Amino acid sequence: MATKQINPFLKSALEFGPVLAFFAAYLLLKDNAYVIGGREYQGFVVVTAGFIPLMLVCTGLLWKLTGHLSAMQVVTAVLIVVFGGLSVWLNDERFFKMKPTLIYLLFGVALLAGILRGESYLRKVMEGLMPLQDEGWMILTKRICAFFFGLALLNEIVWRTMSTESWVYFKTFGLTAAVFVFFMTQSGLFKRYALEADKD
């Protein structure tokens, strides 16, 4: 099924809205505890419980409107349900904090598997967005693979050594900024290995 074009603002709202809503809800509820079903839950776990269905609804709407979901969006949704659900069920915020680590490790390993086979799996999903020469795709794939492993390690360091509030800020803004900065630093590669337009 071909991807349908939708309003870019709506697309951004569906993709990033749940994360911003999680951040805002956490700031409001972080210092509170709630007794539900005779069990006490801290604000972080309560916000996580609300985030799971919100993320699923937004992902479902994105699929319905565009007719397409990327592999990362699907894997992210699955891991949110699994690890978010474990955090709520076991009343342990650590599981949800592990989720970014697993996401980056999974995609890092997938890219590494392709690299070892002499292929760029990244090219298969992004070729329409960035037409590059074969060598350019392999270089970019290797860099993104290393970047994913680096983000996985960084997330582990942050959630294991810092406060929950610090991790929430890091997850909401730090990881997003890291991805933005990474791709900004690849501009030289994009220019060097870009496919020339047909002169005719």
Please explain how this structure is put together.
By secondary structure, this protein is mainly α. It has 2 domains: 1-90; 93-200. Helix content is 76%, strand content 4%. It has helices at residues 8-29, 43-66, 71-90, 94-116, 121-126, 134-161, 164-184, 187-193; strands at residues 33-36, 39-42. The chain has a two-stranded antiparallel ribbon. Plays a role in cell envelope biogenesis, maintenance of cell envelope integrity and membrane homeostasis.
SSE topology:
Blueprint: H1 8-29, E1 33-36, E2 39-42, H2 43-66, H3 71-90, H4 94-116, H5 121-126, H6 134-161, H7 164-184, H8 187-193
Antiparallel strand pairs: 1-2
Q: Quickly count the helices.
A: 8
The rough form would be described as: globular
Task: Write down the domain tally.
Answer: 2
Strand order of the largest sheet: 1-2
Keywords:
two-stranded antiparallel sheet; 200 residues; 2 domains; single chain; 2 strands; 76% helix; mainly alpha
What does this entry show, briefly?
It is found in: Cell inner membrane. With 200 residues, the protein is mostly helical.
